[in-house]
Amino acid sequence: MTDPRALSGDESASGRKRDIDRIFMRQALSFGARGLGTTATNPSVGAIVTRDTPDGPVVVARGHTQPGGRPHGEAHAFSQAGAASMGGTLYVTLEPCSHRSVRGGIPCVEYTILSGVKRVVSAMSDPNPFIAGLGHALLRTAGIEVTIGVLEDEARRAHRGYLTRITQGRPMVTFKIARTADGYAGGAGGVPLAVSSPVAGGWVHLQRAHHDVIMLGIGSVLADDPQLTVRLPGLADRSPIRVILDTHLRLPLTSKLVRTAHEVPVWVIAAETAPIEPEQALVAAGVEVMRVSLGPDGHLDLREALTLLGTRGINRVFSEGGPRIGEKLALAGLADEVIVSTSPKTLGQPGIVAVRPGLAAQLTDPDLYALVEAGQIGQDRFEHFTRRG
Fold it and tell me: Which of 78, 92, 259, 348 has the greatest number of C-beta atoms within 10 Å?
């Protein structure tokens, strides 16, 4: 290892600059996470504005993309910074946008130029082929120093939903399953189990709030009659759109989902061959019905369903769809993140296996998934896997 005392002044200053950039970019990523689940069709971008002082750089403003996708993180930060941004540095988790849109406002590149900052540190370029690199090029043309790639891996994970939609035409999917200590998600015959502890259940509600959609299969709905809302103090308005995979349109009009459809949207994805009468009744009750093809197995084509959600601007899907859907998503290469929670409780008899063989095989394949987090939440152990590539 090189002795720091042997470094030249330029090398030492360069190292300090990199360290400072990483510190503030990490803050920008943390701040950007506050908007997850509220900004579709846009990504939730974090932005930090700093200015230099004799004692080092200080933060003068923080911003993140606001609910509904506007204003963007940079614009939000600059509106707070005012004249204090002059001569400062902008740290932003995604390349500033460079195009005008009918939704309003000037692009973030123009905000940045007008702000008077002398430097922009960007975690990554925008993958949108129509604008990739243009924002950075315009900033350099305006005489602003641009550094790209600081904490890029972390930024790619933070923006995975947006990146997946732009590059693959579908949202990212987080599949979550809870199981007993002996590996079951339900009792024999599909009898529902209260698996998670209250603390772990609260954490799951927070994950719901960080996604645009919560997706469930009709079998789980018929068994549990869930609300699928966020029931945490102060976060009730963060309940995502509820999407039900319902091949034959069996969703009961008396279900909690239908009865609350005017409060929190409910979208049902059915087969093209499903009967029209139940669709008419659901639509009259405030539910939106969409249709996709059947796959070779006679069930909904999951890739087509997710692509359909992508056309609606959905970036992030949280699936609590049960063991079969989890396995199908994984085998189709559609389960981008997988969260497995294990309770200390046991069922003590055969039941519904939570992690089916197909999913289990993939999670233990290091070429397919990496375990990125593991720990305890309340009484339950959580493991968080991310799909490689």
Answer: 92
Q: What local confidence, expressed as pLDDT, does residue 130 receive?
A: 85
| pLDDT confidence of residue 11 | 66
| Token pair recorded at residue 179 | 């199981």
Q: How confident is the model at residue 4 (pLDDT cuts 50, 70, 90)?
A: very low
Q: Can you tell me the distance from the alpha carbon of 219 to that of 323, in angstroms, rounded to the nearest whole number?
A: 11
Q: pLDDT band for position 10 (50/70/90)?
A: low
pLDDT tens digits along 250-308 = 999 999 999 999 999 999 999 999 999 999 999 999 999 999 999 998 999 999 999 99
Q: From residue 286, how far is each of 5, 196, 257 by CA, in Å?
A: 69, 32, 10
pLDDT by residue (tens digit) across 12-67?
778 899 999 999 999 999 999 999 999 999 999 999 999 999 999 999 999 999 99
Let me know: does 51 contact 87? Beta carbons within 8 Å.
yes
In this structure, what is the dihedral angle of CA atoms 299, 300, 303, 306, given to the nearest 10 degrees?
-150
Residue with tokens 């009961």: 252
Catalytic residue selected from 74, 95, 279, 320: 74
Before 71, cis peptide (omega within 30)? yes
Amino acid at 142: A
Taking every pair of C-alpha atoms in the chain, what is the biggest distance, in angstroms?
79
Residue 354 · residue 177 · CB < 8 Å? yes
Output the CA torsion 120→126→129→130 (10° steps). -60
Contact by Cβ (8 Å): 257, 237: no
Rounded CA separation 51/387 (Å): 38
Tell whether the model's pLDDT for residue 6 goes beyond 80.
no
314 closest CA partner among 164, 95, 208:
164
Domains and CATH numbers, the chain: 4-158 (3.40.140.10), 167-387 (3.40.430.10)
| Residue 386 · residue 336 · CB < 8 Å | yes
